[in-house]
Structure formats: C-alpha cells, structure tokens
Amino acid sequence: MTNPPPRSRGPDTTPNHDCPASHEHCGAPTGEHPPVTSLATVSIRGLWLTYPGTRWGPPVHVLEDVNLEVRRGEFVCIVGPSGCGKTTLLNIIGGFLTATRGEVLVEGAPVQGPDRRRIFIFQEGGVFPWLTVRENIGFGLDRRPGRDTVINHYLEMVGLSGFERSYPRELSGGMRQRVEIARALAANPEILYMDEPFGALDYITRFKMRADLVRIWQGERKTVLFVTHDIDEAIQLGDRVLVMTRRPATIREVVEVNLRRPRDLDSPSYLERRDRIFKAMGMSHLSGGPLGP
Amino acid sequence: MNADRMAPNTSQRPRWFAPVLTLPSLVAVLLLLAWEGAVRYSRNDLFPGPWQVGLGVVELLRKGLLLKYTVASLFRVTWGFLLAVLVGVPFGLFLGWFRTAYLAFNPLIQVLRPISPIAWIPLAILWFGVSDAAPVFLIFLASVFPITVSATAAVRDLQPVYVRAARNFGIGRVQLFLRVILPATLPQVLTGLRIALGVAWLVVVAAEMIAVNSGLGYLIIDARNAGKRYDLVVAGMVIIGLIGLGLDLLLRRAERLEGVSWGYAHR
Ligand SMILES: Nc1ncnc2c1ncn2[C@@H]1O[C@H](COP(=O)(O)OP(=O)(O)O)[C@@H](O)[C@H]1O
Ligand SMILES: [Mg+2]
Fold first, then answer.
1. Residue A5, in any domain of the structure
2. How far is B260 from B185, CA to CA, in rounded Å?
3. Of A224, A258, A278, A286, whose CB is crowded by the most CB atoms within 10 A?
4. Whose CA is nearest to atom 5 of ligand 1?
C-alpha cells in the first residue's frame, strides 16, 4: 500500500470545535488549526460523551476528553476494563453514534456516519443469519464480474473454503467471526474497526484467531483499530496499545509495543509492556489480576 | 423416543412401525370404538356412530356437495387471508420500523384485536348483505391482526447490529429493506401467517353459518335445520378438521423453505 500525498485541509474544512473557546482541556491547540500529521488517518480531539438520563437512571458520563491518533497502516489496540466505554468510543469513530462534544477526523474529514471504506466488526457478531457464508462475504460487493473471485479469495484467506454454502448457525463461533472478517476485507476498506471480535471465543480458538489476524493484516496492511479488554491480546496484536481508564474514561497511557511478530510471550520485553499496561489500569501483579481491586 | 431419533435408519423395527403414524392411529381406533360403543349403549337415534358419519361423507361426496362447499369455503378463506396478508405484512413492518407510527396506531390495534370476528357478523351483513363479501370481510378481520402484530414484533425484535452492519456497507433505504429487514423478519412473519390462517379457518365456518348459504359452515347448520341430519353435521365437522390440518401442514412446509428455515430451531 502506498501512501497518498499528504493532505492539507483548506480553510473551508475547518472542524467545528464544540469545546469552549480555549482548548486547554481537550489538548487541541488554541487559535490555529490543529496540526494534522500526514500519517494520521484517524484523529480524535477532546471527545466527550454522555448518554442522556432515562426514566430509570441518571445520565451516564462515559467518555471524558479522549484524544488519540492512528497512523495509516497501523494496528492500534484499545484496552480497558469492561464497561469503560470502548464500544461507545468505537461506535463514535465508526459513525454510528454522535459525540457530545469533540471531533473525530478520518482522513482529515469529520465523520458523518458509517462509510464503506471503514468497516466495523461488531462485538455481538454482525454476520447475517439468513445468508450463506458466500452470500455474507459478498454482501458489500456489487454484482460486477470478478465478484466470485474476490469472494473465493477471502474465503480461502480466512480458511472457510468448503463452507461457502453453510448458514452461520451451522458454524462455530470462531468460524462466524472469520466470516465477518472476510466480509469486511472483501469490501476492501481502508480501516477496520474491531470491537472485541474474539471476546466470545474459547481460549484456544482466540489464540488461533489472533495469529490468523496478524497473518492477514501483514498481507493486507489495513489500518486496524482493535478494542479488547484482554491485555495480552492487545500486546500480542498491536503496534501500540492505548490504555483506557474506568468510567468516565479517557486514554491514560500509550504503550508502544515495538516487538517483532510473531511475538514471544515469555520475553522480558513482552512482560515489561504487560506490566506497564497493568499498572496503567491500576492493577499491579501483586494486588491481583485483571479482576483485582 | 430419543433412541429412535438418534438412529433412524438402523432401527431393528420394521419400517411400517413409525411411532408418528402408529401411535395416533391407535388412539384414533380406540376413540372410534368408544364412540361406537357409547352410541349403541345410549340407544340414541339422533346422534350418529362413526360408521354413519362415514356414510354421510360418502353421501356428500356423491351429491357433489362436499367438493362444492369445500371450494366455496376455501375460496372465501383465500381471498380474506390474501387481503389480510397484503395489508397486514406491509403495515406491520411499517409500524415496527417507525416508532411514531407504532405509538399512533398500536393502541387502536390492541383495542380492535380482542373483538371476536364473530361480533362483527351483524355489521358485515349490514354492509355487505348475504354475499361472499361478508365472510371474506370477516376472515380479513380475523387474520389481519395476528399478521400485523407479528410483522411489527418481528421488526422490533430485529437486532440493531444487522442494520448497522448493512448500513456500514453503504446500502440505501430500499436495499436495506429488501436485503435486511425483509429477510430478517420473514420467519417470524411466516409464523404469524400460520396462526392467522388457523384463525381464518375457524372464522369462515362461523361466518358461513350466518351470512351465506354455501360452504362447510352452511353445510353443518343446514343439515341440522333441514332434517336433523346429525350424521352430516359430524361429517362436516370431520372434513373441516382435516382441511384445517392440511392448511397448517402447508404453511409448516413453507417454514422449511430456503430463506426462512434459518429462523426456526430445527427439531
Ligand atoms: N445506549 C446507552 N444508554 C445508556 N448507557 C449506555 C448505553 N450504551 C452503553 N451505556 C453504558 O455506557 C458504559 C460504557 O458502555 P460500553 O461502551 O459498551 O463499554 P465497553 O464496550 O467498554 O464494555 C456502560 O456503563 C454502559 O452501561
Ligand atoms: Mg464493548
């Protein structure tokens, strides 16, 4: 994948900041346009989100001043405790939800809604149960010649050749995830947003899926924003790991992983990164594991 | 039972011994014997035994009435039911998708729904006279509510993740309807149709007893009024039951069709 020439935003595309006149709290520089590095494909400034109160409960402050940048071709993991707002954040980035304030730029333009150049892979599983594996993978493709070739290519890539006529209910959870990944890749998006895609799978399957995802990503070089609550998963996959705090959540720490793939899970450098993330999430090894106090 | 299901082909039993057929047949034979016994024991002249009912069916067949009245009833059910499908499915899907429409119309539906279609018979006769239109209208009323309600529920139960996933691929409203909402709701809609057809078949008999002078409902009331022919009354009842079973089997078959079968737990 080659990088397109750097984009500079003209004066007409000034983003509308909803935060107060001074941008101190949201990290965006005041006055001038915030600088956009040519490599940033997703860039988020001062993002806040509050779910409005319902008849049954008060408003929920979920995101508080989230800032992040994702570079083109990068594999970024967001890790955080359950319920901290990871899905909420990814839904905003994916265009399914509007932030209370702050801005989300993708390729320099504010996100207006979902876009077929950035495909979302859902925590709940978004494979259509009424379509076969083949029809699912082809869902985002027009009826143009070469459609079958594309479908076959991705069927094979995710290891589902021979199951193309099966319905999702006839597949295991891991295979369904493979279908969803293949469907996303077949649409040839620039970015993949993955929301705990392996969260519902058993330990062994999860391991295999991660290895396969890395292999696929190394072949396709898409930008990936991958959300998980599993610290090990984040370090095994990501170029960088963004650590989210509890609600109201913000990004507390960015850990550069910088290890060659496939990663040696026993190496001191791996364990050092793991330690840093545990600490950032407020859990040292001694005071208990991920479920500790 | 379970063993039969696990190894259907390696069973030691002869092929004809299929519990799904033999057990009900056994029950039927016992029931017929008890019926015959009861009639003989009570020495009742009016109430027919199973043999007389069988003869009654043959008589109706020979006179051509059975075919004629069955066709008349099925004709009314077909029209009333089809109209209900044409109105109920789109309207139900619409109510399921648009919250405002749901809020506006649902209370009205919930008030009309519990009114038995039988209660509409006087109005149906007032509006349509003694014609085919009256029972068709009643059947429409009987089936349109279950159809609408099940279509509405199907859309409201639709997992939002499917809509999001589809919108992510940039498809428009029409495509979203055709490729997601319709296929996703089809199994539940079909179940609604099956329930509605059952109700429609119940109602046509009642409607024909009062509002017209043909059909299986008319056959029953006429056999009684014209000569206390209870053998024909019971013959009519048996035929109504068998046809109702046939209609239900037909729609059960439809549930196995490709495109909806994914939505049912396979038993
Ligand atoms: N639509 C909603 N309305 C109100 N509260 C919500 C809604 N969706 C999520 N929440 C709340 O926001 C918090 C963050 O949810 P979520 O983003 O799903 O967390 P995560 O994905 O990190 O587990 C949770 O406490 C959840 O209960
Ligand atoms: Mg989540």
1. no
2. 9
3. A224
4. A51
Looking at residue B59, its amino acid is E
| Residues of the domain holding A45 | 24-117+192-197+223-282
Return the structure tokens found at A13: 């595309």
Contact A73, A35 (CB under 8 A): no
Name every chain B residue with its beta carbon within 8 A of the beta carbon of A134: none
Tell me which chain A residue has its CA closest to the CA of residue B185.
A130
- Please indicate whether, in this complex, the C-beta atoms of B262 and A130 are within 8 angstroms of each other: yes
Neighbour-count burial of A119, counting CB atoms closer than 10 A to its CB (0-12 exposed, 13-18 middle, 19+ buried): buried
**Binding-face residues of B in 121-180 toward A, CB within 8 A:** 159, 161-162, 164-170, 179-180
Instruction: Give the pLDDT of residue B17.
Output: 65
pLDDT tens, B93-130? Answer: 999 999 999 999 999 999 999 999 999 999 999 999 88
What's the pLDDT tens digit per position in A169-222? 999 999 999 999 999 999 999 999 999 999 989 999 999 999 999 999 999 889
Number of domains chain A is built from: 1
Domains, chain B, in order of start with CATH, read: 51-263 (1.10.3720.10)
Establish if A101 belongs to a structural domain.
Answer: yes
> Would you call A130 and B186 a contact, using CB atoms and an 8 Å cutoff?
yes
For B:224-263, CB contacts with A below 8 A are 259, 262-263
Quick check: CB of A150 below 6 Å from ligand 1? no
The ipTM estimated for the assembled molecules is 0.82
| Digit-coded pLDDT (tens) for B146-177 | 999 999 999 999 999 999 999 999 999 999 99
CA angle A284, A289, A290 (to 5 degrees): 100
CB-based contacts of B192: which residues, under 8 Å, 6+ apart? B88, B92, B146, B147, B149, B150, B151, B154
CATH number, domain with residue A228: 3.40.50.300
Query: What is the token pair recorded at B267?
Result: 């038993």
Residue A140 lies in a domain: no
Tell me, yes or no, whether A59 lies in a domain: yes
- Report CB contact under 8 Å: A130, B183: yes
